Amino acid sequence: MHHLKIECHMASRPLQAGRLALVFAGLALVAGTHPAAQQPGSVRGRVSIGIPITARRATSTYSRTVPTVALAPESELRHVVVYLKDAPHTTVAPMHAEIRQEKENFVPRVVAVTAGSEVDFPNDDPIYHNVFSLSRVKTFDLGRYPKGQSRRVRFDKPGVVKVFCQIHSHMSATVMVFDHPWFAVPGDQGTFELPAISPGAHQVTAWHERLGDTTVDVRIDAARAVTADFVLPVPEQ
Fold first, then answer.
1. Is there a contact between 86 and 218 (Cβ–Cβ < 8 Å)?
2. Bridge partners, residue 163, by sequence
3. Are strands 80-84 and 191-197 parallel, antiparallel or unpaired?
4. Structural domains of the chain, with CATH
5. Which residues, at least 6 apart from 59, have a Cβ–Cβ distance to it below 8 Å?
6. pLDDT, tens digit, for every residue of 61-113?
7. 3-state DSSP assignment of residue 168
8. Less crowded by CB within 10 Å, the N or C end of the chain?
9. In whole angstroms, how far apart are CA 212 and each of 25, 59, 98, 191, 206?
10. Over the stretch 52-72, which tens digit does the pLDDT of each residue have?
């Protein structure tokens, strides 16, 4: 295994593996008929998010406020999507995802699906919500509906769809739609893997809902894995 350690300092739900596993299995089956030099490799790694924390530091004559850095809670990693930026268009099976409305929040706030997938928006709050989006990729307005009801949206085109509630302006979520299978939401420990990638030079992007995205170059060798670790710090104010 080749290891390429990359730390990216930025300025600027979990993946439904059950269905995508069929896609990767098919790719692996095809690769098995090719010479070893043409067999796909993979990218695996870990994502960490640093957050600045202001702390008081005392000396013999005075105390001062200094910034320190700590890691964001693991739950924040669920708002990251890692994907192959230069991936070719591939026919992939649709998925099913869910973004619930709980305590005046969208849960989860970020989901990643394939084009043609459907996302449910159930309301678990004892109040009305009105889910909508004005994104160019997908525009919709689900209207007001009470607790216990759910509405569904089909996302046919790849791109980023920002979702809001017309009643509660602080509520927001993101649906990332891909026309290929090379994407993943990191696990609880920040780990991810993008399998079955063709050998050669590629770009891998880690996107965060508030931090934006950062992209690194990787070199995939046949039948081998390369490691790319992302460290995404919050810019100091």
1. no
2. 173
3. unpaired
4. 1-92+180-237 (2.60.40.1120), 95-166 (2.60.40.420)
5. none
6. 444 554 555 665 667 888 999 999 999 999 999 999 999 999 999 999 999 99
7. coil
8. C
9. 32, 38, 23, 19, 8
10. 544 444 444 444 554 555 665
